[in-house]
Amino acid sequence: MTLVVRRGLISMFSYRIILIVILTWVISFFSTIDANYLHYKNTLIGGRASTMAGAYSAIADDASGVYYNPAGLIYSPYQMMTDSANALSLSTLRFYDVDDDYDWELNSQSFYPNFFALVNKGGSNFAWGVSYVMANIYNEHQQELTPYLTNSHREDRTVFLGPSLSYRITDQLSLGMTAYYFLRSFKEQYSQYGRQAGELLVASAEEDSLYMSDYELLFHGGMPIIGLIWTPKTHFSVSSTLRYQFNSFSSLEGNRLSGSGMDLDPSSFVDSIAFTHKQAAYPVQMGLGMTYFASPYFLVSADFDYFYQTDSNYDHVINWAVGTEYFIMQSQSIRLGVFTNNTSIKMPTVTSSGRQHIDLIGFTYGYSFHRGTTSITIGGQYLVGKGRAQVYSNDSKIFDYSRSDLSFIVAAGFGI
Predict the structure, then answer these.
(1) E-assigned strands of 75-146?
(2) Model-level pTM greater than 0.90?
(3) Does residue 53 carry a pLDDT above 90?
């Protein structure tokens, strides 16, 4: 009987620490969609997993295993378990000296339920589950009075929904698969107005200028996840995972208005948008994980992920994560972790435009209280980085910018 769940052993304590996503959002002012989406660890899933920086694929024995590595579900100490999570996220993006000595700053905050999973064991060698994951969310509402009067509201959400299966091949080897359907919704309401004279003077413009847009972009697709866990020794486990996200179809509908001149007539500039839109291909993600169970009270885990780009316009990416867990007493545990969230956007050059390159490093912490088959987890994440960006369309000028995200999670789990 041990406190730390090992491969092939069942924990004495109800150890289902549940899921939460810590969510990082970064989005650049003029390419909101691409900048955030070309970081691949914006969300960490699961109460226990997220507070260990997502270094979880070689453990994966609670409900968050449906996302990290479904092969681990068979090692759950419970016949059935449910997990749910909520997160509060605060994000700041700052571009330095963009307009003479003026900095641009974008802020986002969200409080949302982002995960639910149900896992059931159909015997000693088989387990299945279903899950809902909000893997990416950004919610910006901005009002600024600079040389332009700008009002903007942007929302970007990605949801995964699907079943999972886990099968024990031998005492030391298990296989699992999750088949996700995904829906991504990006909405924008944006307006910008400047006058030739007066307080709202448009830089280098000789007449009034107006731009407005209101649209929604939808992507539908899938993401299969295949995983293996091998336990050559009681104190050590190794994992491998493979996943690929793909678009089946997408659409864009809305309206936009733009024009210039002293007498702006909105009816002259309305342009309805309705067409099929194709997003650049997602990378193939290959992962390797290792966990060392040093004692019944202490473990260390690490994950390495390689994102292979099928589109030559983007860079291949390597991310890593290291997490640790320690039981300070039978009913209480603490966790720490560190991870990277690197971008696939190439570094800006004098011949490029619209690029925003920033690599991020994150730190996580968490505390869990266990009683019977119930667990409650609280924790958080801090993500930070500095990079280089081209913020003006069709302009190669490069600016410094920074991003910082702060997230808090509350997760709860129950097993029987």
Answers:
(1) 80-99, 102-121, 126-145
(2) no
(3) yes
